[in-house]
Specification:
The chain is 81% helix and 0% strand. By secondary structure, it is mainly alpha-helical. The chain has one domain. Helix 3 (38-67) packs antiparallel against helix 4.
């Protein structure tokens, strides 16, 4: 099996991790979160950091599995495909589908699901 698609999926996860770290600048955190209350602002920021961390760890796992431990690769890719599929489903449900950014994000998350599914397909071939 070629490792290229797993490495592309890992790069995708790294990119989304970096994107999440940029939320502070993009959305003016923590200032813009103050109106939601101190606890909600803290939860939002904490979850964002933990999600970013998870993306980086997941990407590292894909890279290691793709380059040395092939047996773990389908499981990691399956977890990624599930994550991005659920995220794509939640985007229009929770944020609406009218705004073009919301539609683009849904498409971006579907691309992530397809990348990770591609890893699984390549593993079984």
């Amino acid at each position: 099996m070629d490792a290229w698609i797993a490495l592309v999926a890992a790069a995708y996860d790294i990119g989304l991790g970096i994107f999440h770290l940029l939320f502070w600048r993009l959305f003016g955190w923590p200032g813009s979160l103050r109106s939601s209350g101190q606890v909600n602002a803290a939860i939002t920021q904490t979850l964002n950091l933990m999600l970013s961390y998870s993306f980086f760890v997941f990407a590292a796992g894909l890279i290691v599995a793709a380059t040395s431990d092939w047996q773990a690769l389908p499981s990691l890719a399956g977890a990624g495909a599930g994550f991005w599929t659920i995220r794509a489903f939640l985007q229009p449900l929770l944020f609406g589908g009218r705004h073009p950014v919301s539609r683009w994000l849904t498409l971006l998350f579907l691309v992530g699901a397809m990348l990770h599914l591609g890893v699984i397909i390549q593993c079984v071939e």
